[in-house]
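Please review the protein record below. Let me know how this chain folds according to its tokens.
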Amino acid sequence: MKSEKGQSLVEFALVLPLLAMLILAIVDFGRIYHVYLTLDHAGREAARAASIGKDDTTIKSVAVNDASSINLTTDQVSISPSTRSSGSDVRITITYPVDFLTPVIGQIIGTFDLKDTTVMRVE
């Protein structure tokens, strides 16, 4: 019977890339889920501010402050309609670009936009 001293090292070298891809995919999923939850929270808070009659600058700053962990900018927040009256709906839309850390998936999919839309009635 021949020596099997290097067998486990060869097996580990074959499995290591798959294991690394799996770990990076888990990290990517966690990052994207965090961005999704943050956008949802920021959209709700901005819609609340809009529903009580705040101006557009204040509404955008509320969204940006609530999403400070992902570095949201005011350019990524849109408010419609621009003039609001009591009883009408206000729509806050936040669009945020997300890219993958996983090398292969990142090259295939590239950057994509997560979009959150919140509608609330103006008081």
